[in-house]
């Protein structure tokens, strides 16, 4: 395929930027878009046509691959339609808001034999790739524990975005599935999940209904653990991932961007993103007064920051390359075989159940609910 012709479902903040990047590539084109609010405007910007439905877009003869960047709750239908039309799919995170939906999407795409890639952006951060390579070469020994923290504070909003409504976005845990996905990509799928928390400080006008404080413990079999914190009820913002091994540790700082390996006789620092400029840009945004600490949400009126545009380039150039015949990389296999997405959503569902029922939940009870041994 000389040129991959894309259809984009959802051209708001993120889908439009993906579209702009794809339209700028000589080996790609955006031919059709569908978005009930922003479709016509964006189609005019990139010289595409606006379809009135996802069904029309997926069936179009001049669409080879579909990007799904509609709100989180609206991913399943276009992914299934694309698969049934034999089109490859790139789907934004979180792929779905339930294991059931996610498994159905993976099943449809694999039955159709089409590429189905999850937009889990952290996998394409240069520093995360370097950290995983160091872990794979044994630089920190066996990984015993990971800690991820993505905490900030949110002030009342003039208009409450769908991103703040639990039913539409999944709340902090699903909407910010990145850290959970990253930890599972290092430690494997969690076996037992526990979550406490709730909406502790953001009720009433100007707020959605998502839980603003989520405190998570994951167990990965004997002697392997992770903890994660998410939310917008933390006045002291923090955003980092710490990986602790038997020989050393790696800290990935997403707030004061940069990464650090510490092991006896070996210390190394490296960038979080591709260039110092991208790291500096991210640092400046976190320090800016208009954001709520580590809790950042895109807005359709704005363009994503430099570092995020860099990741869009990385992941869509990988997806386009594979469609054009490039060999897939083992490093990204879990993003294109459905396993990273289903493992992340399964664990998120187990955590949701844990919070609701005040108990530890085996992740296997979500993925194989009829197996009595899994409960
Ligand atoms: N990977 C990342 O870092 C990252 C960053 C931002 C957003 N995202 C993901 O991208 C997706 C879109 O987020 P966003 O920030 O662009 O939100 P947004 O609200 O800016 O845009 C969503 C767009 O979808 C349109 N839409 C609503 N219902 C639709 C439907 N049924 N079919 C088609 N379009 C529909 C809306 O009109 C809007 O233009 C979400 O899944 C989000 O999680 C990922």
From TrEMBL:
Transmembrane segment boundaries: none
Highest taxon listed in the record's lineage: Bacteria
Ranges of residues in domain Gfo/Idh/MocA-like oxidoreductase C-terminal: 132-362
Gene Ontology terms, MF aspect: nucleotide binding
PANTHER family named among the record's database cross-references: BILIVERDIN REDUCTASE A (PTHR43377:SF1)
Record family assignment: Belongs to the Gfo/Idh/MocA family.
Record-given protein name: Gfo/Idh/MocA family oxidoreductase
Organism of provenance: Georgenia subflava
């Amino acid at each position: 395929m000389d040129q991959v012709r894309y259809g984009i479902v959802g051209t708001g903040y993120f889908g439009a930027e993906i579209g702009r990047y794809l339209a700028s590539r000589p080996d790609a084109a955006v031919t059709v878009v569908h978005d009930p609010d922003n479709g016509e405007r964006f189609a005019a910007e990139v010289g595409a046509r606006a379809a009135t439905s996802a069904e029309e877009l997926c069936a179009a003869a001049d669409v080879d691959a579909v990007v799904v960047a509609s709100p989180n709750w609206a991913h399943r239908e276009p992914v299934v339609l694309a698969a049934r039309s034999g089109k490859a799919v790139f789907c934004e995170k979180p792929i779905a808001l339930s294991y059931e939906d996610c498994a159905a999407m993976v099943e449809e795409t694999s039955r159709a034999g089409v590429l189905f890639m999850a937009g889990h952006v952290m996998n394409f951060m240069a520093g995360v790739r370097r950290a995983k390579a160091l872990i794979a070469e044994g630089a920190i020994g066996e990984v015993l524990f990971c800690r991820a923290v993505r905490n900030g504070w949110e002030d009342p909003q003039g208009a409450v975005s769908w991103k703040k409504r639990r039913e539409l976005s999944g709340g902090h845990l699903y909407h910010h599935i990145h850290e959970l996905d990253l930890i599972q990509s290092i430690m494997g799928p969690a076996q037992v999940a526990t979550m406490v928390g709730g909406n502790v400080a953001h009720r009433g006008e100007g707020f959605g209904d998502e839980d603003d404080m989520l405190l998570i413990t994951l167990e990965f079999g004997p002697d392997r653990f992770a903890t994660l914190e998410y939310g917008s009820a933390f006045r002291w913002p923090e955003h980092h991932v710490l990986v602790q091994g038997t020989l050393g540790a790696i800290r990935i700082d997403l707030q004061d961007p940069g990464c650090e390996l510490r092991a006896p006789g070996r210390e190394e620092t490296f960038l979080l993103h591709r260039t110092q400029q991208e790291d500096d840009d991210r640092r400046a945004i976190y320090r800016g007064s208009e954001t709520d600490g580590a809790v950042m949400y895109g807005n359709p009126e704005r363009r994503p920051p430099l570092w995020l545009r860099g990741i869009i380039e990385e992941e869509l150039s990988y997806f386009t390359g594979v469609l054009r015949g490039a060999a897939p990389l083992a490093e990204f296999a879990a993003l294109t075989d459905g396993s990273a997405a289903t493992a992340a959503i399964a664990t998120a569902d187990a955590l949701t159940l844990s919070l609701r029922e005040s108990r530890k939940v085996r992740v296997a009870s979500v993925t194989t609910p009829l197996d009595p041994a899994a409960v």
